[in-house]
């Protein structure tokens, strides 16, 4: 074992030891404060009756169910927003990013205005706008707006192919999609421009049309630059979904806040929220890192 290798391992062990000491001190301090206040730390409250309703749910739930069941409902609502949001924001960001490089003056400038507007205004303000100025301004359900008989808009939200989405969910989803999509558009644009122009010339020399050259030659190479910052935007979208509480969508943070207000278990509830978002973020990171490996150039 070389000297440098020894000190590298020793440094890592020391860092782990110091981290363990810090956690032990903080945990001891927390227990001491609980004892002084006469509060018992624990998660037994999760088995108690929640006694509050949740307006939007994908699994069966009623107020007589436990707090753990209520938190599951909130988690599923959060996953619903995150998964659909990631799909939609990828489509929006990819489309806008490519359009930013269009030879068409109108298309290029419209997408530029979109990117600059949504990137430079607060997300919370955008969510409030979508909810109060857009969805609540729609006509009542009996006078709903129809688009080709496939999509309907009303104060009850969006109806698409027989599926109904509440105004709270719709406002949150659209707000997150267009906000995050603006950042992804710039990531896509930068990734495409990072590919050497010689690749375009090579594709043209093979007789490939611009669209085909983009799909087969340029974009696959751009992915190596796009994916790392794209992962960060997916993480931001997932964490930003906690702003749902501002417009009344019952995500995990909304349900956890109600649980805390009723039980007074601040530390336990905050730990559950932290672990939830940490797990979601690490899961997205692992998936995107695996995808990133598939597009990297392997040296022989």
Topology diagram in text:
Blueprint: H1 3-37, H2 67-99, H3 105-119, H4 123-135, E1 145-147, E2 151-154, E3 157-160, E4 163-165, H5 167-194, H6 197-205, H7 210-240, H8 252-263, H9 266-295
Antiparallel strand pairs: 1-2, 2-3, 3-4
Structural features, described:
- There is one protein chain.
- The protein is mainly alpha-helical.
- The protein is 69% helix and 5% strand.
- It has 9 helices and 4 strands, in the order ααααββββααααα.
- The protein has helices at residues 3-37, 67-99, 105-119, 123-135, 167-194, 197-205, 210-240, 252-263, 266-295; strands at 145-147, 151-154, 157-160, 163-165.
- β3 (157-160) and β4 form a beta hairpin.
- α2 (67-99) crosses α5, α6 packs across α7 (210-240) and α8 packs antiparallel against α9.
- It starts with a helix and ends in a 5-residue tail after the last helix.
- The mean pLDDT is 90.
